[in-house]
Amino acid sequence: MFKKILIANRGEIALRVIRTCAEMGIKSVAVYSDVDANSPFVYSAYEAWPLGGKTSRESYLRWEKMLDIAKKSGAEAIHPGYGFLSENADFAEAVEKAGLVFIGPPASAIRLMGNKTAARELMIRNKVPTVPGTENAITDRQLARKVARDIGYPILIKAAAGGGGKGMRLVESDDLFEESLDGAAREAMAAFNDDSVYIEKFVEKPRHIEFQILADNHGNIIHLGERECSIQRRHQKVLEEAPSSLLDEDMRQRMGEAAIQAARACNYRNAGTIEFLVDKHRNFYFLEMNTRLQVEHPVTELVNGLDLVEEQLKIAAGEAMSLTESPKHFFGHAFECRIYAEDPENNWAPSPGVIEFLNPADGPGIREDSGVTQGSEISLYYDPMISKLCAWGRDRQQAGRRMIRALQEYQISGIKTSIPFLIRVLEHPDFQNGDFTTQFIEKEKDWLFGERKEFAEEAALAAILAEMEEKKKVKLVAANGAGSPSSQWKTIRRKEQLRSQ
Ligand code: MV4
Description:
Shape: globular
Number of strands: 24
CATH topology of the largest domain: D-amino Acid Aminotransferase, Chain A, domain 1
Helix content: 25-40%
CATH architecture of the largest domain: 2-Layer Sandwich
Bound molecules: ligand MV4
Structural class: alpha+beta
CATH class of the largest domain: Alpha Beta
CATH superfamily of the largest domain: ATP-grasp fold, B domain
Largest sheet: 8 strands, antiparallel
Number of domains: 5
Strand order of the largest sheet: 13-12-9-10-11-14-21-19
Number of helices: 17
Distance between the termini: 51 Å
């Protein structure tokens, strides 16, 4: 096993990797920008080296600097986390060339899966179900138009170099085909410096379900079940869960097999994720492969009783992974809520500032992966996600109740967060019944943002307390509202609290 590794990332994911290193007796090397000098991950690491700079480009994207610090500190391997350099095939290659180990897949798999048409082609050849559409990037406009007519409108034009929803265009009818094609190619060129695009039939009201894959260098390749990721807004996931309430054992078996087949086809190693779309007839289609550890990996850990970072380290060090067979049963149910420093009530505007007071949730079944502490400043330089709150329960209902309780318990002031919105999502009857698609937030925005009659009294109380705060200099820590009468997950909320200063 490695004795020392460098973590080329920041925030909660840097801390996540540092923690497993500590448990495994591996020395961790953090790198940090000027803005992050006082972040918890910097203090938790065995040692920490400054990168300088503020923006990502000046700091966490500087790979020569990363390699330099790795060499100077004596690190043997680099964990890229997610985002930043994690899916940069050139970086993965440079790491290996420098005589270090990249804790992730081979550069060839990153490159192949980064090209969405190449990935599609590979899946078609390997009999992994894909959405009907063009087999390659479009070179012949008339042929492409014929494909669109044959599969039937609406269709989506997607950028080959895109992914994660970037550079997609919906075309509703044949007369709009030509201009949409030109527009999509132009957008793709501007965004990715590559104008290749391809066509897929538009799957209406789908679910987004992804499978966790692990593959080692001893011939073991398994899946660890799925994550339900349909609850998202503008391609930003908001809340994830494992397992998905949509899948039965048979469907899980078939999708898991397809996911393993997909990973095998690109000669995959380490942890990866296969994204699927599931239509209303429960047909599933390969969408993309993510060649990194994902933000939402904790829900998979919770229902498998497994440390995915530990598995990543073992695999990268050439050891066999802990499991050799895909599990058939999962341990209870887990939710993850992404807590963002943003204001959902104000069109999700970023909410930078200092966290003046922080007392996060805890207690039975709660796990929090947070990158901040009281006094931390949330800047506009990086992603606004500050924490991931997970709740585990013996079943979906207990996990849901615990999540609402934890979100209510969570005390944070100085910045706005998505916590009240998350509570509303968890209280929604359709969400509780597992009856939702990727359109959920858009479709239910009135319900999710609407006034609640039953809160009228509490709103009045809150107004009085706010006035008291003004007059008597008493600090108000507002409870995070919840408890709709229709909720099968109804919980008892605590009262507003007054903390005298
Ligand atoms: C689609 C689709 C419908 N049909 N492809 C969005 C993110 C990117 N990974 C692919 N995406 C989609 N591809 C076909 N053929 C709908 C989406 C999509 C979506 C997918 C997953 C989760 C949320 C989504 C929200 C809007 C659109």
